[in-house]
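Exercise: predict the fold of this chain.
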Amino acid sequence: QLQLVESGGGLVQPGGSLTLSCAASGAALDYYGIGWFRQAPGKEREGVSCISSSGGSTNYADSVKGRFTISRDNAKNTFFLQMNSLKAEDPAVYFCAAERLGGCPPRIRMQAFDYWGQGTQVGVSS
């Protein structure tokens, strides 16, 4: 059973950067598509980014394009979300997720993902 654990959340000033990590155990990530989601208080969980098993395909929500970068290190069974130029609208609990088919759909939907981490809090405040 694949298990995912996020780390790297915290509080930063507007314009600052954070890198989230998601460490996997119980199975190798090589064949899984990977995604990051976020959920702000009172809002639905939304897809932020995903990357295919090969790393050849990535997608981003419009709200984070050009600021966030997803990556994966299959050798370390870990994947990342580099977040730059953080804005007031970015604070949320960020979740990592994995899907068994290895894909990265253009529309990053929760229903496509099979395994989830517990989340890590990201705050942006001056």
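Check your answer against the key: The mean pLDDT is 96.
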